[in-house]
Amino acid sequence: MSLFAARGRYLREGGAGNGVVTGKSCGKGYSMAESARRTRGGGGAARRAARSAVSFETARYIERNIPNFEVLTEEALEIIEHNADTVLEEIGVNFPDNPDALALWRDAGADVQGERVRIPRGLARKLCATAPSTITQVARNRERDVVIGGKSLVLAPVYGPPFVRDAAGGRRYATMADFEKFVKLGYMSKWLHHSGGTVCEPTDIPVNKRHLDMLHAHMTLSDKPFMGSVTEPSRAQDSVDMCGVLFGEQFVQDNTVMTSLININSPMTFDDVMMGALKVYAENNQACIISPFIVGGAMAPVSVAGTLTQVLAETLAGIAYSQLVRPGAPVIMGAFVTSIDMNSGAPTFGTPEAAHITYGAGQLARRLNLPYRSAGSFNGSKLPDAQAAYETSNSLNMGLLSGVNFMLHACGWLEGGLVSSFEKFVMDADQLGTLHHLARGVEIDENAQAMDAIREVGPGGHYLGCAHTQSNFREAFWKSDLLDYKPFETWSDEGARDTQALATARVEKMLADYQQPALDPAIREALDAFVAERKAAEPDSFT
Fold first, then answer.
1. Cβ neighbours, 10 Å, residue 175
2. ω before 267 within 30° of 0 (cis)?
3. Is there a contact between 299 and 197 (Cβ–Cβ < 8 Å)?
4. Residue-wise pLDDT tens digits, 282-301
5. What pLDDT, in 10s, does the model give residues 2-44?
6. pLDDT of 350-406, one tens digit each?
7. Are residues 465 and 374 both part of a single domain?
8. 0.85 exceeded by the pTM?
9. Structurally, how many domains does the chain consist of?
10. Cα gap 252→393, rounded to integer Å
11. Which of 364, 429, 442, 428 lies closest to 402, judged by CA?
């Protein structure tokens, strides 16, 4: 698949352009919706389900205690901001096939000629000022609510691939059964805060109906926050309506219960499908990530400064439009950026240029006082191998240090986003624990100074049995649930398994241990009925 064919698929489907634990999950085991509305029905059955439910340990979203890494000087930031305003004022952006959007821009004072919108200097920035600086996304298990913005970092899984891969079946088109497995793995991954959206594209379900099954899976197989559909405005409305069933209609209007991905068709084109979905979500108080899909050298200039100028111009226009629809609508400034391999035309990942852009975009987002989405477990490898590990590590670390607030694609990404890998999902999900620990920073309280330990051991001793080690060893170090640190002989006797083999075994164990979080039977019945009714309302379509 060529770069541009892949890009078209991403944009159509909303893809890449689109637990030591801080606390335990809900011990009661029932959902927020059940807790709020148990009187609706289900009664004794719901309470019995709640008492017998198992709740898996989940880390709270990350709150950084480390500084952001900033690569742009004040002068550089001012130049990029000035140039972005010039792009909007002189060149403009396109809103094709969207007369309602053009009317909104015209009424706001923009120069609208045909489908081209030229935005006077400062207008977009003024409109963006009404967007909130932080967003609380409510989960049906209220102990798993997430805050997006400020010093927080919320981790969500891979989004959008049409293919899946595992060690047994190799690379193949994704099915709904695969999708459900990924949702279960996400629910059980203690370092993952969010269930995500299209964790893979289930190709065995009609295109016009698969969003219903995907949302139903997120709502019933997990109790973490999730994303809505963006592939067509009516599907965005279905997402809002299903949330109304799960949480209550008025609750949805008063609270953000979805965070959804809106891609800009770079360069500087805002297609009617994505903008239609954005309009639905903004009108209903649901959060959207406004994110360019940019490969430097293809959809943006080859230079870091030029790409950042385009990223800022596009996000300013998209966020401003959301505020025209509804002032105060929750939005996240996105930046999906990478570079191009000039030999093959394929996107590259984990590169220093991508890091520079990601760091710079974080600075620009903070100057706008907006939440920031970028980074992930990005890599171009075909297998979960050394290339995948190097590029993923680079991508995850730049996300942490750049101040990202919402990290989509945090685990499971393979082959430039064309593949969701089961083994890599659990490999990445395990490594996300390192981000939690890095974000803690360095403690300097009396216990951390360890002077009693140094006095107790003295010259020539060891710390293995000292009182300080005994009292701190359980929480002192991050511990992998996957990687092998055993002696060679033990490793050899156990089959000399590499990391992929260990990951295969972990996938199998997690799926075997999975237990579905409890949900009020009356709500489950209403969700089932909604999906069945919507599916029956129109014929199947696979285009």
1. 16
2. yes
3. no
4. 999 999 999 998 888 889 99
5. 333 444 443 344 443 333 233 333 333 334 444 343 333 444 5
6. 999 999 999 999 999 999 999 999 999 999 999 999 999 999 999 999 999 999 999
7. no
8. yes
9. 2
10. 37
11. 364
Task: At 399, list the tokens.
Answer: 């996300």
- Output helix, strand, coil percentages for the chain, rounded to the nearest 5: 50, 15, 40
Q: Say how many C-beta atoms besides its own lie within 10 A of residue 76's C-beta.
A: 15
Dmax over Cα atoms in the chain, in whole Å? 80
Cis peptide, bond prior to residue 120, ω within 30 of zero = no
Residue 174: DSSP 8-state: -
- Three-state helix/strand/coil letters over 95-151: CCCCHHHHHHHHHHCCEEECCEEECCCCHHHHHHCCCCCEEEECCCCHHHCEEEECC
The answer to whether the beta carbons of residues 442 and 455 sit under 8 Å apart is: no
CATH of residue 55's domain is 3.20.20.480
Closest listed residue to residue 418, CA positions, set 175, 156, 162, 158: 162
Nearest to 346 by CA among 399, 417, 410: 417
What distance, in Å, lies between the first and last C-alpha atoms of the chain?
A: 18
Residues 323 and 467 in one domain: no
Nearest to 241 by CA among 295, 284, 278: 284
- Rounded CA separation 103/156 (Å): 36
Match 């035309």 to its residue by tokens: 345
Tokens of 274: 């994505």
Whether residue 109 lies inside any domain: the answer is no
Query: Using CA atoms, how far apart are residues 244 and 257, in angstroms rounded to an integer?
Result: 10
